[in-house]
Amino acid sequence: MQEQIINARNWLIQKKYKWIFKPIFFKFDPEIIHDQMSSFLNFFGKHTSTRKIAYWCFGYSNSILEQNILGINFKNPIGLAAGFDKNALLIDIMPSIGFGFMEIGSITAKPYEGNTRPRLYRLPEIKSLRVNYGLKNFGAEILHQQLQNKTFSSPVGINIAKTNSLETSEINKGIADYFFTYKTFQDIGSYFTINISCPNTCEKNPIFSEPQNLILLLSKIFSITKTKPVFIKLSPDLLDTKLQQILTICQKYPIDGFVCGNLTKENSLDHAGEGGFSGKIVQELSDQLIKKVYQYYDGKKIIIGCGGIFSAEDAYKKIKLGASLLQLITGMVFEGPQLISDINLGLAKLLKADGYKNISEAVGKEN
Ligand SMILES: Cc1cc2nc3c(=O)[nH]c(=O)nc-3n(C[C@H](O)[C@H](O)[C@H](O)COP(=O)(O)O)c2cc1C
Predict the structure, then answer these.
(1) Which class in CATH covers the domain with range 3-362?
(2) Residues 77, 347: Cα–Cα separation, whole Å
(3) For residue 262, how far is its CA from the centre of ligand 1 (angstroms)?
(4) 20 to 30 A Cα–Cα from 128, which one of 29, 84, 101, 315?
(5) Closest C-alpha to ligand 1, atom 30
């Protein structure tokens, strides 16, 4: 499709979202809306015809955005971050909405129904969400069964975490919990993300962000033959000394990259309450994390930039700081589903304007 047609199409959808759908959605509990939308999108993903309709409404492709990273083909750099599709219901539809890849989960060894409701809050004045799900998901066995014979039309990352319970706060049980999910999903998905930074579990601080525990976890993970790339998801709240320690440890293991990063606990804006914050609040923290990780490894590890992406400019900034791939959730909630192709279209323009022939040439150029 011509760029002007896509621009016009996105403009129309954005207006519809802003003036009709969003005001209705934002009147209801965010979790109810999310669950309803997931059921609707799950249905839409089941049929070729409805997937085609979704692609006409939201799709965009451009070879300048295509990359092969760690042997995986990405049609564009924009991925759906973990937590939106906890139970892998949207794998069929998300490529038609325009995503270049997606992460499912976090998946834990045991099923967990989540912390008590309400556990998801919108903060429209600061374009953020407060999230306190506490790693709700069906658990590794059920999800593995559900996905066993499925073919994926774009890369799917398996985000694994530790079951949210006091029992798994004991280090060996925690490691066994991660390892169970890691082993269970050896045959599914394009890469793993090990989430060591969830801020809304029963532990005050994520215990596997502690260096001595991380060493034990990674030793166990890499005790079996690695079958696909492994990423570590970092907290944007890590102090520099702790971050350096974690990165030094990770250097000793065959880790391919980092997701920078998770939700923040920083709530200086006085939105106190349980959980972590996404969106605008986390944007600058995520940018700084990308910058530090890129510098530490001199660009030799792959970075997935995640946190507060609302526009092509936000995305381009993360790329120039060192991210090869990007993920988002909150931007889509506030701006609408056309945001994905808007960002991709905008990125293609920004890259061309700077004289790049492919997105990979821009990675880390301002770091
Ligand atoms: C509703 C919601 C649930 C989330 N659940 C998870 C999760 O289960 N695992 C995880 O690694 N990150 C989770 N996250 C964090 C996101 O993956 C992402 O790191 C964060 O939201 C920052 O991106 P954003 O500003 O584009 O939303 C969740 C975020 C949101 C908004």
Answers:
(1) alpha beta
(2) 10
(3) 6
(4) 101
(5) 83
